[in-house]
Amino acid sequence: MAATLAMATPAEAQNYGPGVSDTEIKIGNIMPYSGPASSYGTIGKAQAAYFRKINDEGGVNGRKINFISYDDAYSPPKAIEQARKLVESDEVLLIFQSLGTPSNSAIQKYMNSRKVPQLFVGSGATKFGDPKNFPWTMGWQPTYQSEGRVLARYILEKFPNSKIAVFWQNDDAGKDQVKGVRDGLGDKAKMIIADASYEVTDPTIDSQIVTLKNSGADTFISLAAPKAAAQAIKKVAELGWKPHYFISSTATSVGTVLKPAGLENAKGLISAAYIKDPTDPACKDDAATKTWIAFMDTYFPDGDKLNSTNVYGYVTAQTMVQILKQCGNDLTRDNIMKQTANIKDFTLDMLIPGIKMNTGPNDFYPIEQMQLMRFDGEAWQLFGEILDGEVRD
Known about the structure:
The chain folds into two domains: 2-142 and 286-362, Rossmann fold (3-Layer(aba) Sandwich); 146-273 and 372-388, Rossmann fold (3-Layer(aba) Sandwich). The longest helix is centred in the last third of the chain and has 19 residues, at 309-327. It is built from 13 helices and twelve strands. The radius of gyration is 21 Å and the shape is globular. A five-stranded parallel β-sheet has the order 2-1-3-4-5, with helices on both faces. It has 393 residues and is an alpha/beta fold.
């Protein structure tokens, strides 16, 4: 019997996919450390810091995480190049949290054709939750459509006679967000009297904001990435425009968006959230926030504690570690996807209380809840109840 067990143990231990050994798990990542969306690069740094923490604590089931992160400068062709390098040269087990709708769209077919997990995509585009056509791709955050509907329902409730202007990024992410707003407004979508798009490479968006103000709109929905969002806040203030102002959750960082735009200019902004904001006074005595601050002090001391995207990097990395733990010693790509599609009421301390992650074989949207928040000139303040967002095609 002892001989039989001795023979079985190595066979069991070899139930590994590429990039896995008895001591290591290789995880790939693609981030815009340079280029027009470089403000998001801090996410990759926060994730790398969290994996260092895990490794210092012994790793996952005794295996250290080898986090290999490359820059794509927010360029789809570069993202394809980096994905191929990670899969074919570095032989990673999976690609985790590659950031941006354009980059992930560019590599999605490649990842699925190679049957390599493209996990917890750094985008809220609905296309990354389509298990029927792309069974190896899964998002993480609430979809842009869900967020758009949440904001639209609030406008219908509080400002039912609004004249709405929408500012959006000209890509799949922006189109998803606009669709969500229109879906949320339903038969009142005619309340949108003007919209204007911008390219992520545009040096300025002043002309679009002037056009939207001149439309006569009294409600403004900004669905822009951080750089353009900050420019829009500043320009709206310069023009003396005083609309009911809504902003995308991806551009709510106090440190990288609101401070550059001027905190006084950002007062009254409304958005939606699903992770805790470290600038929220309500988090001052929160044990989870204190733990996060201690993590930042130790593993990412150069990171901005006012930047909520560093919380995003932290919680996405925690989710990845949870999946690896669920896999145990069966670290194959098939089991990675099986476990990722079997998340049940999982939560993390830096998620807003009440928000839980759930997935299934036909549900590749882990988080579908948000809560509204308002900026008071110094910090974001949550209000209202946790809202569920239904995902539609």
